[in-house]
Structures are given as structure tokens and as C-alpha cells.
Write a structure and sequence with these properties.
The structure holds 2 protein chains of 2 kinds.
Chain A lengths: L1 H12 L19 E8 L4 E3 L5 E3 L7 E7 L4 H17 L4 E8 L3 H8 L10 E4 L3 H5 L7 E5 L4 E7 L7 H12 L6
Parallel strand pairs in A: 4-5, 5-6
Antiparallel strand pairs in A: 1-8, 2-3, 4-7, 7-8
Chain B lengths: L1 H27 L2 E2 L4 E6 L6 E7 L2 E7 L2 H10 L4 H8 L2 E9 L5 E4 L4 E3 L5 E3 L3 H10 L12 E4 L4 E8 L6 E10 L2 E11 L9
Parallel strand pairs in B: 1-12
Antiparallel strand pairs in B: 2-3, 3-4, 4-5, 5-10, 6-9, 7-8, 7-11, 11-12
Helix pairs in contact in B: 2-3
Classes of the chains: A alpha/beta, B alpha+beta.
């Protein structure tokens, strides 16, 4: 009976996306907050949509945007196009975006990304037990970290952002210009 | 003569103590933000209500959530029916907190109180308390609820569900607090209302 009622709810409301008043979503801000003291980014290894393992350490020497997200989180959805845009433009210069999905299945996420106006080409990793988000002290979604070439978390942002903003691009470009040996 | 002197000194002492107490309260107590602009919105599609309080540099929104929406969210995450129904039985709001200032600020849900029609103030159940309940029910999911406490740098914001053990349609007040530069600020929503049990006719 529960399943029947639930199925009805999902069928009736899923096309609307939301069953509550459409959130008067705040504008996506663009401020990234520099940590006073850079922190070593803990290593981890997670699977992507193709069951390939990605370790953070595989990307050492690159500038990494680590984005914690989930499909049910409206601002997560809204910031994906800007992440894809900056990834497309700066990827060849050593910039990587890793979208760490929280507690969802690859099937669910694959279906979800297929509905987006911009399909993310950056790796989407699956933190099925939320261990990695705990490791990074993530309290809410989305949360985004910028990791420099030395493997240190240098910027942090809680809440949705427009990563295509010139100020964000300037920060990433600045990190890309750093050598592996200085911060 | 001596008794009169003592009474006089006692009065001076009491008066001074009152002044000191008032001064201490004004320094250490919450700074009321009675000037907050609270707006109420009605969603044209769903007919549901939301409220937004805007203070200088800080905003807080409460958005009604239907029980069926709550069911869809938690069942969609694979939570067992008993947990789904437990959550759907609560009065739930989508909550958005935003730091709109150029300085860090912080909030703690444990400092917030909802006030029922009988005038009683009650603590708001925290995410930590919920996660413990969920763990006891064999659920490892730890998302969707408003984090207990957060430090927000400029531009940071967060959203999540707030839960209250109230019946659909219940009207209540909610006192909230946040801190900035060691100063406690507070505000109040005077007439929040739980979502109805079913979607309103629009």
C-alpha cells in the first residue's frame, strides 16, 4: 500500500520537480573564501559512473575543484553548467573538476544528468557512504573546495556558486600559474 | 542613624546593581533585530507559503513542505517506509540561510526556539538528534536536514529541512539567532504556519 501511494506521488509530482513552493532560490554568489592556512587535502578513492576508480592523488600537480553535491539539491543543479564551462575552458591547462555525489546510485545520477541542459563531462564520483564528505568536514550541499597543485585545500565555498564568474576564473588561473613548489 | 545609613547604602547598592545588570545585558545579551523585514510569499503553482526575514547582512527563509513532498524526498533516497512516514509526520520547512554581509557569521539551530499557541518555547530538533534516530533505525543517510551549526564566510549560504513536531496547519512563532563578531543577534517569525496535509486548491 505504501509503495502504491508513493508511486502515485512520484508519478503525479515528479514532472513538476518539486512538491513544495518553488524555492525562491537565492542568486548564486561567486565569492570563494581563501583559507587562512591551507590544509592538506586527504586522499581518497571513489568510483565514477563507469566503475573506474579515481584517487585524489592521481590528480596531484593539477588544480582541483572538489564539488560535493546531490541530485535533490536545487543549487547543486544550478551550478553544474558553470562548473562545466570553466572545466571546458581551463581543463587543458591542468584544471580538474571532480563532482562527488553523496549517497546516490550511479543509475539514478546517470538518469538525472541526462535531463540537464548541460551534460557534465567532468568525472562524477560516488561517495555512497558519505565517508569522503565526512573526511572533508562537509556539513551541507553543495560545498566546493579548491585544491592547489601541492594538494592543499586553499579555497572553500558553502552553498551554490557561479563558477563561470570572472573572479572565480581569475582565482583558478592564479592557482594554475603557481608552480608545484610554491603556494 | 546607623540604620538609616544602612538603608540608604542598601538603596544605592540596589540601584547600582540594577544599572550594572542592565549594562551587562546590553553588552552580552542578544541584539534584537526588530527591524527585520519579513515577507510572505504564496507560490502560484502550489499555493504553499514561504517567509523570508531580511536583516542587514543576514537572511533566513522558511518554505512550507507538503508531507507528500517529504515522502518523495526520503523514499527517493532509499530510506525505509517507517523512516519516510516518520519524517512525513513532522511539520517540515525548507530553510535557506545566507550570509549577505562582508564578515563571517555563525548560527546554531540549538539556539532557536519555536513558540506554540500556549506561549511555551521549545527547542528545535537538530540534525545531530535526527541522525542518531536514523542510525538507530539502521539508516546511514545524513543529508537533507539543515546542518546544526555553521560558520559562514561572506557569500556562503546553506539550505536544508527544519522539522517541528506540529500538526499540519499549526501556526507558531520561531525565534532564531546568529552571531557575528562576538555579538548575538536575534529575530522572530511571528506567524509561521505548517503546510497543510494536502496540497491546497489553487
Amino acid at each position: 500500500m505504501f509503495e502504491l501511494r508513493l508511486a502515485l506521488v512520484l508519478v503525479l509530482y515528479a514532472p513538476l520537480g518539486l512538491l513544495h513552493a518553488e524555492l525562491p532560490s537565492p542568486e548564486l554568489s561567486h565569492e570563494l573564501n581563501r583559507l587562512e592556512t591551507p590544509v592538506a587535502a586527504p586522499d581518497f578513492s571513489l568510483e565514477d559512473l563507469d566503475d573506474e576508480q579515481h584517487a585524489l592523488s592521481d590528480y596531484r600537480g593539477k588544480v582541483i575543484m572538489l564539488n560535493f553535491w546531490a541530485t535533490w539539491c536545487p543549487p547543486c543543479r544550478r551550478e553544474i553548467p558553470s562548473m562545466e564551462s570553466i572545466y571546458q575552458d581551463l581543463g587543458e591547462k591542468g584544471f580538474v573538476v571532480l563532482g562527488v555525489n553523496e549517497f546516490e546510485t550511479p543509475d539514478h545520477v546517470f538518469a538525472y544528468t541526462g535531463q540537464l541542459s548541460v551534460f557534465p563531462t567532468f568525472p562524477i564520483l560516488f561517495d555512497r557512504d558519505s565517508k569522503v564528505s565526512e573526511l572533508y568536514g562537509v556539513k551541507g550541499l553543495p560545498t566546493t573546495l579548491l585544491i592547489n597543485k601541492q594538494g592543499q585545500v586553499v579555497y572553500r565555498a558553502a552553498g551554490g556558486r557561479d563558477f563561470d564568474h570572472p573572479e572565480v576564473r581569475a582565482i583558478v588561473s592564479e592557482l594554475l600559474a603557481e608552480s608545484d613548489g610554491d603556494t | 542613624m546607623i540604620i538609616g545609613y544602612h538603608l540608604h547604602m542598601k538603596r544605592i547598592f540596589r540601584h547600582t546593581a540594577r544599572i550594572l545588570a542592565a549594562l551587562l545585558l546590553s553588552v552580552a545579551g542578544p541584539v534584537p533585530h526588530g527591524m527585520a523585514a519579513v515577507e510572505t510569499f504564496t507560490d502560484e503553482t502550489s499555493g504553499l507559503l514561504s517567509w523570508q526575514a531580511r536583516h542587514p547582512g543576514f537572511s533566513l527563509q522558511f518554505i512550507q513542505l507538503l508531507p507528500d513532498y517529504v515522502r518523495a524526498v526520503y523514499s527517493g533516497r532509499g530510506l525505509p517506509p517507517k523512516v519516510v512516514e516518520l519524517m512525513a509526520g513532522y511539520c517540515m520547512f525548507g530553510t535557506i540561510i545566507k550570509n549577505e554581509s562582508d564578515k563571517p557569521l555563525a548560527y546554531r539551530v540549538a539556539d532557536w526556539r519555536y513558540i506554540t499557541a500556549d506561549g511555551q518555547a521549545h527547542p528545535v530538533k537538530t540534525k545531530t538528534a535526527w541522525l542518531q534516530d536514523w542510525r538507530d533505525m539502521g539508516v546511514a543517510f545524513r543529508w537533507s536536514l539543515l546542518p546544526d551549526d555553521q560558520q559562514f564566510a561572506p557569500g556562503d549560504w546553506s539550505q536544508g529541512f527544519t522539522t517541528l513536531p506540529l500538526a499540519p496547519g499549526t501556526v507558531f512563532k520561531l525565534k532564531y539567532q546568529w552571531t557575528q563578531e562576538d555579538e548575538i543577534h536575534e529575530g522572530i517569525f511571528e506567524d509561521l504556519r505548517c503546510a497543510p496535509a494536502e496540497a491546497p486548491d489553487v
